[in-house]
Each structure stands twice: as structure tokens, then as C-alpha cells.
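Protein modeling request. Please complete all fields; requests missing the sequence field cannot be processed.
Requester role: graduate student
Desired output: 3D structure, C-alpha cell encoding
Chains: 1
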Amino acid sequence: MTQNMNLVFGVNFDLLKTNLTAIYEKTDQKSALLVMPTTVNSPNTVKLGEMVDEFKNAFGIEGAGDKIKGNLENVQNEKSPFKWDEIGFQLKAAFLYKEMPGKQTEGTEKASETQSGSGAVSDNGFTEYAFAISVDVADALPRLGMIEINSLFVAVWNTERTGVLAQMGIGNISRMLQQLDT
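Delivered output (182 residues):
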């Protein structure tokens, strides 16, 4: 009887005050990598000033904050100063799942040939991802008269997992238009 070796390696870390877990798993059937939040809740905000201070402390980088502040001050209006250290970042979603097939044996070849539908393992494996970040600029940007920008966001994803999409807190335009009709 041959026993197959299984390997799992994991790390728990914080990115933008969001606790994440990364896990690598290796079996005879597949290799997989998963990165996801440990708890799904409202994300914490990290101010740019805090990030600069943390980089300065961690890596001994002096003057980094002054360079950022100098670049931002070049584009600001004297009457309404830009408060660069008040820019806030929220990691709305960080999800990665990569699966690659393992070595094929007689039994696993036939099993993979019969799989169908989404999530089936192809010869090349598959990757699902979602990354979304929100930038809070309400306290940082000067008032522009009749318009005031509160926040910006960017998201990129290919997953259809409803839990991940809900965590991102954004929808596509079609879904938003459907909500107007209900």
C-alpha cells in the first residue's frame, strides 16, 4: 500500500489592518493556493499618514512622508489645503484561489475527464480572484465649491462567489439598474 504525501503551509498576516490567511496545499491530485480574510466584517481604515509612519519605523526610511507631502502640495490650492495624511484606505476584498492539477495517474485521469461545469479542473487549472480597495478622501481633499468628493474605489475580480462579491460592497451597473426598477 502506497501512502500519498499531503502538504499544507499557511501564514496569517495583516494588510491595511485587515487580517488575512494564505494557505498552500499540495496533494497528488492538485496544488492549491488560497488567500482570504480570516473574518468577513467591515474593513478598517488606514490613513496615509499612519502608513508612512509604519514604513518609516519598519524600514528606517526617512523623508518618505516629506516627499509625498511635497508632491501633493504642488497640486493643491492655497485657500483649501490638501491634507495628505488624512487619506484613508480600506481593503474591501482580497481573495485569491489558484488550483493546478497534480500528477495524473490512471484513476485521476478518468476522474478529471468526467468532471464538468464550473470549478472543473482543466489541464491548466484555474484561478479565481477579487481585489477591491476604497479610498476615503472626504477629510483630505479641499472643497471644490459645489462638488465634494468623498471616496473613490477600484475593484477587479473574476470570481462568482457570492460571499466574496458581497464583501466587496459594489455591484455592476446592470444590477444597480435592476434595483431602480424594483
